[in-house]
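Porphobilinogen deaminase, chloroplastic
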Amino acid sequence: METLCSALVFPSFRITTSAFSKCGIRASIAVEQQTSQTKVALLKIGTRGSPLALAQAYETRDKLMASHPELAEEGAIQIVIIKTTGDKILSQPLADIGGKGLFTKEIDEALINGDSDIAVHSMKDVPTYLPDKTILPCNLPREDVRDAFISLSAASLADLPSGSVVGTASLRRKSQILHRYPSLNVEENFRGNVQTRLRKLSEGIVQATLLALAGLKRLNMTENVSSILSIDDMLPAVAQGAIGIACRSNDDKMAEYLASLNHEETRLAVSCERAFLEKLEGSCHTPIAGYASRNEDGNCLFRGLVASPDGTRVLETSRIGSYAFEDMIKMGKDAGEELLSRAGPGFFSR
């Protein structure tokens, strides 16, 4: 894992990680591991080891400590880092190595086996099904769902010269970029954590990249953003910007802890989007986007999209209904069924 205490400086471009200026996550983990040898933790948080995943785990830890005095004691909470399949295999596009559960499977297994008590996930990585013996009762307040455009030479996608290469590991981003800017090229195996991708950009491997604004905010790295794409220009991934926290289904104490952190508006929006995704999931090779939000009237506005990977065919739909769980689940499923029908046979099996 790259050090989080330093800043990488490039000409006319500065990549910083000031969110971890307290002396670094490595040091924090070492302290926690030492503490755990002398005191049994009351709660173990399972997480990936990337800087962003750790930021999300620490956000969860801090909220738990603030809400429950017994968890604020030194050593009461331990961070358990788990390497996932998605972290181990970086040489292939995500769609080629399985798609579903690549960043969650091993974390869920550690939860089920008792090696951790709760699991912190980026909700966009969580399959629409949950493993047996687990529940996901908590979503933290959602961050900004939009995508950020980052480039050393251009202020936006529209400013990139024809033939420029945009790096992304997302078929959703690739299809929407090519749909609007067919003269651009997309490098779709642009893998790695945020810091790695920004380093590749600085080295000229690509001319631009898109990253979730939520992650950059959580890493305190928004100074790297050239511009922010509107929802109209780039519909986000299902559950983008949302953190989900799972526990074992028979662990009432952990469920009680998580209930105190749950942000219901986020949970409902994510549930609507995941209902849409569940209807459509037939292939991890299909670009899918979906976003549910509360409009100015207090109702739920849902927008969904499916596309061909090359961006030549993009299908969109929308729904408006009450901001209530059953109605929002119905909207998501109904929108998914519509796009399935419009796409026709074979669209989701390419």
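thats it. The longest helix spans residues 325-343. The first strand starts at residue 8 and ends at 10. bye
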